[in-house]
Amino acid sequence: MSDTPSQSISTQTVAxxxxxxxxxSPTPGGGAVAGTNGxxxxxxxxxxxxxxxxxxxxxxxxxxxxxxLSRLTDAQSKFLSLADDDAAGYGTLNAxxxxxxxxxxxxxxxxxxxxxxxxxxxxxxxxxxEVLTIVQELTGTTNRMLRSDLEVAAITGKSAAHCAACxxxxxxxxxxxxxxxxxxxxxxxxxxxxxxxxxSIAKACR
Length: 206
What we know:
By secondary structure, this protein is mainly alpha-helical. About 75% of the residues lie in helices and about 0% in strands. About 35% of the residues are buried.
């Protein structure tokens, strides 16, 4: 059984990715779900912008919306890259975990491996805040006929954030005890911001 995926998520078909997820391999796993949900949120928000650009009614927002579309497209790609990073981080940590605690390789590589496992979902969570902030802005600058799609972006982005937090939370106890409160507080602060953004977007879309 391989602990890391042989193919990047960005190059897999939807069916192939889901078959890999529904398998006996540990990756793709929760980190991939977080990443693909985040990419989906960015993508559907981008679709709303595409349908708005060039419309006379929204001409005053054209430049702003172009910039937002570029940022959403970048986020879409970054989420998938972070999903691959998450799988790689898991593989490194899992390899050390299988060694005895007294093993020099485990002792020397442990802290970096834990940090490497926490970094990708933490970046995903921060990216969710960025994407949902853009979606909130779009509620006032895009076609109102597509507001249901913006709400879908908010729901999917919120899901991505909470999935990412699951992967952070499970690894926080592996950090040095002195670093755990800061990691937990940072995660909780970003989740609270995500939830607030989601609620604001949902209200604006109804």
